[in-house]
Structures
1.
Amino acid sequence: MMSEPSRKTTGAGNKPVLRVECYAGHRADTEPRRLHIGQRAVIVTEIIDRWLDPRHRYFKLRGDDGGIYLLRHDTVADNWEMILSDSSRRKETRLSST
């Protein structure tokens, strides 16, 4: 079941506004399925990795544009933030395990 895009957005400073559409599976865990970065939509093609800390859930994702995105979800505030992105266009700056 695809949920509505997160109403919580980031966009402080020069960062583009980020909205995240999620899927809530049978365990009710939320997984990102589509990112809206400014006016651009990116479909998540793979969840490469995920991990938790006491307040946040992290996702390392591959988009349909070939880019790698690292997102942090603040579970208390229900806010998404893009921590890092890599367009994979330059081999010398490519993130590991991509």
Note: Residues 7 and 63 are 21 Å apart (CA to CA).
2.
Amino acid sequence: MNKEQQSIDFLRKLETDEPYCLSFSGGKDSVVILDLAERAGVRFTATYANTTVDPPGTISFIKNNYPQVVIRHPEKSFFQLVSEKGFPSRMRRFCCEKLKERYGIGKRTIEGMRAEESSKRALYEPEQCDSRKWMKGAKHILPILSWTENDVWRYIRKRGLPYSKYYDPPYCLTRHGCVGCPLAPVHQMQAEYKLIPGYARQMIRSIGKYMENKPNNALARNFSDPYEAFYFYLNEMSMQDIRRLKKGLFGFNAKQIIEKEIFQTKTVLYVAVSCRRIRGYGYKLGSWLTGYVFQ
């Protein structure tokens, strides 16, 4: 039995009287699970949670190509949350909780996570229980957990499914999600902010408000301005590293560096140095040209 049929049978087997939720991000994996769920004939509601920091045009792409998806807008934008709470991090994922995960509380949600994406996801079960108390027994239903990236692109090509332009040149992104996600590698965060500098500007403004409203907080006490704080965030540097930079022989001007390397470059023209086809079924990042080496 091929993977497609296995995934379809899996969704049918786990169906209950209560319809599934289906988490749709506009990325390649969510495009596939939506099509699989429709082919399986199971009852579900597909939802896109507007995080307000997905690549520009994501909502238009969904409306034009997947009108069956319900678009939900947050009470507060990502940047409003940052101005109140500071930077998100791997350990402080308030953005995920407030902007995405709350729609799955107590529900059984079909999601496009795959085992090969990380060592943590490699340990997931196809029906994964959420152990966090505030999720109230939610379950993650993962029909393409065993699929590879090649499998995903092969399915998209075979079925002729519309997919986001950001996977193709000149962008060549390997993931479609929140720009500058702190769960992504540092080089990827930097490249995404160079690609979409407007989000970097908003992040700097928001963290500036946070520092102004909380002058006794660690950020306000340790950084001269929001540019320094953003530089620190963008490089995952220690405070010791920052202090060493500021005491260096030639000085340190974070604003000057960020203005030059993010806001004064036409990144879209060269952000992807090389893209290569994955066996003819899609594009994968070859290498990034980041210009300035932040660290």
Note: Strands lie at 20-23, 44-49, 70-72, 108-110, 127-129, 139-141, 272-277, 283-288.
3.
Amino acid sequence: MAKVFNWQLGREMDYPYAGHRPQRQFCMIMDTNKCIACQTCTIACKSTWTWGRGQEHMLWNNIETKPFGFYPTGWDVEILERLGPQTWKGDTYTGKTIFEAAPDGEVALHWEPDQADWSNPNLGEDEPTGVAGEETYIPDTPHANMWMYYLQRICNHCTYPACLAACPREAVYKRDEDGIVLIDQTRCRGYQECVAACPYKKSLFNLETRVSEKCIGCYPKVEQGLQTQCTTVCIGRLRLTDFVNPPDKADPRNPADFLVHVRKVALPIYPQLGLEPNVYYIPPVHVPPKYLHQMFGPGVEEAIATYRNAKDDEELLGALMLFGSTEHIIASFDVKDGVARAYDKKGDELVAVPLREPEVVRSFSYATTTPDGKPATGYRHNT
């Protein structure tokens, strides 16, 4: 095992290959507070990439209700139970990653779902947890007694992918130009080591072609400077496709770097697993911090407090308002005079979004005429 630095853990860790970061790293940021689980993203992805034979069970993009939803069944519970205690000391992870906890002869700690585990993508949908109690009033914080939230999932295109590390055929590779992780299906022989090793279970096996497949980060669009299908169709405007830098190279004008490294409002999912995933989540504000700490690591309370303060932080509000505002990948942004502007890598303006829409109050009554031309007074139903 080589030693690589994982900034999400705050330390070096074991990994089968020497560390190498791509020229640019594809990433996605999800605002969990905006999702209504309409599944528009899921259908867009499905109809674009996984409509063929052997792909019937495949959802490269899925939305699941936490804490009881899973695709495949129990994906995170299974690996977390096997990993054991996951402890942090400040921002440094002091437990073991799946590579450090691997059994003898294995690359990573893993488990492989049964075929039936892929058959219930809407398991636990809209099911809350907690005790409702007998209160007849709404508490200060909605969902204070019972809660659930929607988790949006694609491949994390990890910096240290377990699928890549586990493949005996070296069929899985990470593109240097954008950090997207792909499977060379001409090399794959269907051993399914990637399916077992990926703790997020985003490598899937095609029963017809007998090779593995996964989310490709919509790289044909990314190569043209466009955001992914799931991002552009999202009616809640909760996604941002971008490129993220490591903390020591963060660019505060880049929206992904700004949200991840500057304001630190977007956090990685299960960073303790050790893959340095590149999908980041703005945590739901109404969920108990203890649960969120396990899923998103330290910094949850601070991220929620920062997000709640967005109305008084024009730069943060501007970055959030740019979600879903353009189909193009945003290279940089700024906020001036109450307007957030996004720019492409050439510096050309892509879109301008006002932070607050202008308000116009109309009078309740107004002068008008009857059908026969006589003066009359009209009244508005709303102002």
Note: The mean pLDDT is 94.
